[in-house]
Amino acid sequence: MDVTNEAGDVPEALRLPSAAELLATTRHDRTPAGSADAEPDPNLLPCGRDPEAVLEHAAAGGSDEHERSCPECQALLRDHSVLDQVTREWAELPVPVPDDLGVRVMRLVRAELHTGRLLPLGEPDEQLTLTESAAARTLRAAVDAEPGVQARSCRIRPYENRAGAAVPGPVTVRLSVGVPYGEPIHALADRLRERVRRAASERLGLEVAKVDVDVVGLESAAGDREANR
Amino acid sequence: MADEAELDEGTLVVRAQEGDAEAFEVLMRRHGRSLYTLALRILGRPTDAEDAVQEAFISAWRRLPGFRAESSFLTWMYRIVTNRALNIARTRRPTVGLDQVPDRAIEQMADNPERRAEGSAALKALQEAMTTLTEEQRACWVLRELHGQSYDEIAAAVGIGANAVRGRIFRARQTLAEAMRPWT
Hints:
The complex is a heterodimer.
Chain A: H1 10-14, H2 19-24, H3 51-59, H4 65-69, H5 71-92, H6 101-111, E1 118-121, E2 128-131, H7 132-144, E3 150-157, E4 171-179, H8 185-204, E5 208-217, E6 226-228
Parallel strand pairs in A: 4-5
Antiparallel strand pairs in A: 1-2, 3-4, 5-6
Helix pairs in contact in A: 3-5, 7-8
Chain B: H1 9-17, H2 21-43, H3 46-63, H4 73-92, H5 104-111, H6 117-130, H7 135-146, H8 151-158, H9 162-179
Helix pairs in contact in B: 1-2, 2-3, 2-4, 2-7, 3-4, 4-8, 6-9, 7-8, 7-9, 8-9
């Protein structure tokens, strides 16, 4: 007897049977086939009971008379009880983690930075650029300095000339920030714009034309409220 | 709010998606222990577990821009680690023998006088019985019984239906419970 539906169609295979369906199809009443020379079902206990049903009944506190007195059923329940106990012991056992695992992972991660687009800096003929991810890191740090605020997304769009090419000039910043619920948003957004402009100018040498601020409620706050501007 | 280790999960994920390696490192340090533990429990060998976790994090870094946050970052990582661990288990299967499963945790426990000897012996028997399961049974059982994942989460991680997950776990439990007979 196979409790799975491995060859079954996908939607059916993804559906878990309800407790009621499980009980309706319990196989504990099924005894080995009547004829004397039939092979006993290897999935059943020697007493003829389905082990899954015996375990379910015991877990639900609904073992029947046979299950409470049958040595095979009782042995099954004891085995599983020990398994549960040893499993808990394993779950709580501390695992020594190699110290250098994180270091090795980060070396590989940094070797393939996806840095995003390049932002032109300085004078048009200087050919200086800064990666968006490095610039975003500086601006996020400036936003994080505001108490309780966490900078999330920070996208920086370079100035474009009439031909649509990125050239040195005032950039546009689109920022999303997590703030504690209940914070007055307009005053906060103004303060964050000021922080972004100052950090861009003083630390990156970038002039900022516009800062859009999306405010997202922090996960710790009530609800995931979102407000714009 | 200067300390990145204090940032909430959603903030770190968004930053990492935009290429912030430091945010990714915080996520890795926050969850590395759970993920390494998962890989070790599925694979049994520390060197294989390290490979699985390392490959999983590199893969996650590459795929992060496409992560839609429909599940938690940790659940998403459980999927990637399980996938890598199953691949490693399949390719290295012939070399894993019953008595070749070093487990530093077991040795550590044996040194701990507060643990009863029966306990560590029963656990060792359980871990040996694990090697008689198929890779999928092992992964399903570990995700369910040691990491508390739901059937649906396990189904997504292992790449089979939820009913098949249920069947794998039941058969794994039967095999493991039989191995516990000497300790009843």
